[in-house]
Amino acid sequence: MGAETYRKEVEQLKSWGSLVDNGLAVFAAMVGLPETATVQEVDRAFRKARAKAHPDAGGNEWVSARYNTGYDKFKRLYKVN
What are residue 80's phi and psi, to 5 degrees? Predict the structure, then answer.
């Protein structure tokens, strides 16, 4: 992952902390989907984002941890296996 791409992802991840709504729209935003995305679409996008951000795939540990935390919360709230 290039430095500019990493910087953009970090800034995007930091901005999520200021979101008030904890609904599906927030999780959709985390993975770059519109707020109208379905639970299944968000789940699929989270899985792809987590795989891409994983350090073993050339991603960054901090970014990967943020996706993992978000995905864990998403799974608990929306009962995703």
Answer: -90, 135
Residue 55 CA to residue 29 CA, distance in Å, equals: 22
Place of tokens 């935390």: 69
Structure confidence at residue 13 as a pLDDT band (50, 70, 90): low
What pLDDT, in 10s, does the model give residues 31-42?
A: 999 988 999 999
**Number of neighbouring beta carbons within 10 Å of residue 26:** 17
Among 34, 29, 36, residue whose Cα is nearest residue 15: 29
The span from the CA of 29 to the CA of 42, in Å, is 9
The structure's pTM equals 0.69
